[in-house]
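Translate sequence into C-alpha cells.
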Amino acid sequence: MKLEQAFITQIMILMSIRNGKRRPSEIARDVNITLQGVIYHLKILRSNGYIDDDNNITLTGFNYLYNGLSDMENFFKSNLMEMDSIMTWEAIAACDLNKDERVYLYMDNGYLYAKKDKMDGATGIAAISTKKGGCTGVTSINGIIKLDVGSVDIAQISNVEENVNYKILTDRLKNIIESKKYHFKGVLGEYAFTVLKQSNIRPDFEYAPIESGYDAARRGFSTIIVTSKRMMHFYMDRIKEMQKQYPEININMFTID
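Result follows.
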C-alpha cells in the first residue's frame, strides 16, 4: 500500500477543520504548510464534496476522513510489522538459551516461547543468554508462528426496562456458555453484570472487555461478552475498529431473548 503526499495533506487539513480551524491561515499554521498549498487543497476538497463553501466538513467528507485515517493506520501498522522482523521480540525460554543461538518459536497458553529443539514454524536468534523460565529477546525472525486464533462472541440481552423473565434469561445464558466452553467471559454494562451475577457466572473481563476479548483471541483463546442491546449500540463503532484492526479474528453477534 502506498500513501500519496496529496492524500496525506488533505487528511491533515480535514483533521484541522474538524478540530475547529476554518480560515486558511489557521489551517496553514496548524498543518505546517504554505497558505497557497492550503487554498489549493481546499479547492480540491470542496470540488469533491468533502467540505462546503464555509469549510465545514460534509457527511461525505467525514466518511472520507474516517476511511483515510483507517488506511493510514493500516499502512503504518503493516510497516511496523515488517520492522518487527528485524527488531527484538520478547519470548519465554523453554530451556537454557545462549546469546546468538538459533531458537525455534511457538505459542503456549497465549505466550511466545523459544526453545533449541528444531520444529516447523518460525525461528530467530537469541539476543541474550537466559535460564529456563526466564525471558530472552529474539531477533532476525523468519517464518510464521503457528497459532489457531480464537473468536469473540457477543451475546446481546434485552434492555433492563423490557422486564424479561430473569430465570429464563439466566438459564439460556448459562446453557450457551457451558455448551461452547469459552476460555473467558466478559461483561459490558451494569445490566449484563447483574444478569451474570444472578447466573453465578464470574466475568474474567469487566473493563475494556471488547479489547480484552480481541487480545485473547489473537493469543488463541475464545471469549463471550455479554451486554445489553442498548450498550451494544454505544460500542458498535469500537467493534468495527477492532474488526478492521484484527480481520483474521471471527466475531459472532447474537441475541438472547
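Note: Residues 151-256 form one domain.
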